[in-house]
Queue: 3 jobs
Job 1
Amino acid sequence: METDYSMLVPQARAFIEREHGLRIAGETISVGSRGTIDVLDPSTNRVVARVLDAGEEQVDAAVSSARDALSGPWRAMRPYQRADALLRLAQLLERDALALSQIETINSGRLIANTRLFDVEFSVQVLRYMAGWATKIEGRTADINAPYIPDGEFFSFTTREPVGVVAGIVPWNVPLCQAVWKLAPALAAGCTLVLKPAQQTPLTALWLADLAIEAGIPPGVVNVVTGSGPGAGAALARHPGVDKISFTGSTAVGREIARHAAGSFRKVNLELGGKSPVIVFGDAKLDEAIHGAAWAIFGNHGQNCCAGSRLYVHDAIYEQVIDGVCEIAKQIRLGPGLDPKTQMGPLVSPAQQARVLSYIKDGRDAGATVRAGGMAADAAGCYVHPTVLTDVDESMKVVREEIFGPVLVAMPFGSEEDVLARANALEYGLGASVWTRDISRVHRFSRGLDAGNVWVNVHNVLDPTLPFGGYKDSGVGHDLGEESVLAHTRIKSTVIRL
Ligand code: NAP
Ligand code: MG
């Protein structure tokens, strides 16, 4: 179950082995005031790289660099030139796809097919989509009234300006993709960026910054500071030179950022946690629902913000669906992400493995039945067997809290009203999927769901064209879509007396 490093392409190996400085103003900065952070391969827990643990001084330099770039060459570039730059960046990601996905797999433990498809190809799609927006940010004219100046004639219009310096703070579950979700709309709108990747998975963000320079994006437009959340992350989120914080991560940290941003009137976009329900009605196509429910939670090892981590199945088909999902869970082949035969890799870190196992123990202690998995694999890395817990209810921690691992809690339901109330009972509201062939129910039920993303007969389908955001404690604002671009602008109303 250990990674075979001979599979790495030379470019990936060379990058992992080199010294990893910060990226500020187009330069590699190799002094970090807080020392270094070990980067692990979670299939072995071996240290594969070290990055700098940036402190306030480096964050300050990165924000200054982004501010300088904002009023410098970046501002002088026309919208089509920003679009061209984003398109070139997309092309460079495609060129380096294999090396990037291998690095992401080594560092995050995720399947190579997954890092290739989501971290690289999805990012390429996002960059191309957002490049299109760079030339389509428009204001409007208005025929104003101003009755208190009866003798005047006016011309008035609105303009959308870049909001300014954006702090992009991202988690480790889909690292490169999350970084691009922050970068692409910000740059399309003419903003500049300081990115703070998660300390577990900092490598591909550094590569991305190098590609931005190669793509002709002026130095200082994309800066990357590696470091810890409480260190570099907090320094960045509180920096007075930052105009907008675009954060993806846990609800607890999001709340802390929102609290500070409220005091300073900083703009925020918060993409937070979830405990998304998968609801299977009696008329669903069973094979598709079983397969869909299993991979809604086991895809990306359950480390998805909108993982389908709560399964509700109608009484009449409950046992059949649970048996089917457990059968899939038991057959999933664990191994290192680089091995193409692997169906589930290790979790991202020993801490995450310990956290997931402690939730399983908590569920067991509270009376849950373990129908599949329930333990770590007998191997050196951070593996946890795909787990299904039954005999649970909404009063239990395993049902209420986000585990962020391959742990499904499954419950039967009777009526549509009952399951809607239970689906909506938590403070989270990120995603939900409904499995049924009844078109009236599709509309009625989707309308009732407190979730920012609803899927029918499929789970977790995201696209650059669709805004992605949460209801309730799952966040504020959106990534992706037109909405995310416009949220990186500020509106100015101008009135001219003729
Ligand atoms: P996290 O602990 O909240 O960390 C997210 C990022 O914030 C990391 O870069 C982290 O740094 C940084 N951070 C931590 N404390 C900070 C602070 N006080 N100030 C500023 N930044 C700080 O989340 P995680 O454990 O990495 O990721 C899992 C969570 O992300 C889950 O809750 C998941 O649902 C959520 N998520 C949401 C979405 C979405 O779009 N809604 C997508 C993916 C993940 P370090 O980790 O380096 O210390
Ligand atoms: Mg964390």
Job 2
Amino acid sequence: MALYSEKVMDHFRNPRNVGVIEDADGIGEVGNPVCGDIMKIYLKINDEKIIEDVKFETFGCGSAIASSSMATELIKGQAVADALKLTNKAVTEALDGLPTHKIHCSVLAEEAIKKAVKDYYDKNGIEYDPSIFPADHDCEHCCGN
Ligand code: FES
């Protein structure tokens, strides 16, 4: 079996939603201190709290790029509250799997989206339960290499 699924290769070669939203309503940036990869997510959110647009910049490995691309596709057009429920497992499943040692790359996507939503909540004075947001990246589930 190939190491990477066709979907991973497709999203790596033709990533969707790459770029910057200049007037983003929420921005989330996370980095993996071990491999040094960085992911940044930009959200444009309307008055109904729907994610109208989402873009990403990822300086990282192919799995991180494919994960960002898939994650942005999954949350585009969704309610902000639903985007918060996106897990790295869902991203990985949508990509038809990632090699075990690359699962942490999809964690970056989940965390960057959560951080961008938190930024949106903070900027707009929207109350939330802080426990739904992870503390800054802990390296526990991250690359052990
Ligand atoms: Fe660093 Fe994939 S995110 S190796």
Job 3
Amino acid sequence: MAVGIFDSGLGGLTVLDEVARSLPELPLVYYADHAHNPYGVRDADDIFDLTVKGTGRLFDAGCDLVILACNTASAAALRRMQESWVPRDKRVLGVFVPMIEALTERQWGDNSPPREVEVKHVALFATPATVRSRAFQRELAFRAIGVDVEAQACGGVVDAIEDGDLELAEALVRSHVEALKRKMPDPQAAVLGCTHYPLMLDIFQQALGADVMVYSQPKLVAASLCDYLQRHSKMYGSGKQSMFLTTGNAARVSDQATRFLRRKIEFVAA
Ligand code: DGL
């Protein structure tokens, strides 16, 4: 009964951690594509091919349900995967929808027509590929009308976090927030549209100001997964064991992940 979690690197661990907290008995198989990250600077075909490969590996590990805990893959590849690749008895879900449902005050799976919502000015922080895809705006338009979105491509932040250089990551976050504020001086809400960014949540909140509501994915995704599994209990796969897989250097990635989650994490070669 394992569920797969995919990311280009360590960012998806922010989602894994919350899922593990909510569903402690559920084995989780994590796949990190360190050999090819960051995805945020790649083109859509490339991201599609890499995401298909990683997801296939998670299916092979006994996961029938895979969460793309990577906004870049969710934005650039998920729809194409669902339309052309995912086998009938498997599911691949992204991380955008739970966050947009929270932002637009919807219950999970409420597919009623778009309507006016409380929030009118939203700042989106994401990787260059996610911003370029406009997937966030597309998903939002299915659910809400009259919401103005200003997107900031946060070049360099994922690399700095993966390298463990949190000082650089902090400086970059501050400068990306400044750049956003020049385009939208008073956002009401900010969306952290990259699973690496929750590690910088306090810096985003400080730079944006206390009155900006910051939406971060890990808790929202974990809650929506619990709800999904209650409704689709046969999507628990046959896998029995939690595992951390990487396409990169397993020893190095294990050290970084252990620092990242502040508990011992051992990656093995994917
Ligand atoms: N954590 C991925 C995301 O949510 C990072 C993408 C990257 O590798 O650039 O977008």
